[in-house]
């Protein structure tokens, strides 16, 4: 981990000292430099129509290409970013980079019009007074269409949503942006809260999808979320699908869209772009004048 890395760098005998000193402040500074210095990379994990395997959306997932430690997943730095507030510039960077990349794919492929882009928003970002203008500015700058963007929020945001937060989320909806609840089922969001928020998508957490075949409770939760989506007129996306059996079970219960290693892992931008072009090149034939 970071402390160990710092200790190694510092040399033997100074482990105690550096594991304390490479504290939150220093790690925060390193992370902020990474954001400013272009050490971050956005990977894209496709979400597919479960019935056909066609790519319907891509979710932006941040990675840190650390000069010493190599490619780090968000599990290694996103909590620190959230605690220190570094997630605010980090999140804006991810949104901008993802919108720019996806706008580029769209520009060369008229058939890719319906393709959606999903980007994760942290609770700290949602709490920023200037969230809406930040998002608007990035959309204007990159030319990415608001009605093809989905912003994913966590259940904790739903539970803590005060009137100002609800106002910001509504303003995002008014721009045409979809709002998804990520990892749905793991938190404590009361249905009454869910209902008064402008949420349009529920993402079933991977833990329930994992158990869908042999854990009756996990299976019931998946079914309940699918029914909830129907009742509230929200789309439902299953995450973390790793087997054909899980995909089949989800299709059987009426879940149309899914994401998971069984279909695609998160892909570096080039590979994601190649996949999108392969799929949508055929659709483009229809758009060309005869
Ligand atoms: P998430 O938004 O729920 O994203 C799904 C995570 O599950 C990703 O991990 C993805 O790689 C992983 N995953 C997808 N399919 C499978 C599967 O079939 N099996 C397994 N075992 N895992 C699967 P990743 O990329 O490590 O991201 C972890 C979390 O970090 C994300 O969970 C999200 O909450 C957060 N995150 C990622 N990027 C950002 C970002 O730009 N901003 C913020 N605020 N959070 C981010
Ligand atoms: Mg997500
Ligand atoms: Mg999720
Ligand atoms: Mg998850």
TrEMBL record:
EAL domain residues: 24-280
Domain of life: Bacteria
Record's protein name: EAL domain-containing protein
Natural source organism: Paractinoplanes pyxinae
Taxonomy of the source species: Bacteria, Bacillati, Actinomycetota, Actinomycetes, Micromonosporales
Full-sequence range covered: 473 to 762 of 762
